[in-house]
Amino acid sequence: MNIMTLMIPMALLLGVGFVVAFFWATSQGQFDDLETPAHRILKDDNERKHL
């Protein structure tokens, strides 16, 4: 039963850490544009050089 006194605070700390990391990433614009990187790989390199 003593292990529960260690595991519960560790789980809560880990959960709070994930929530803080998520909010930090969203405030930094990490999730703003999810489609452009997926489409960029399909474009030809020659098209980019002309721009």
Automatic annotation (TrEMBL):
Read off the InterPro entries from this record: Cyt_oxidase_maturation_cbb3
Cite a single Pfam family from the UniProt record: FixS
Say which species the protein is native to: Bdellovibrio bacteriovorus
Q: What is the protein name stated in its UniProt record?
A: Cytochrome C oxidase Cbb3
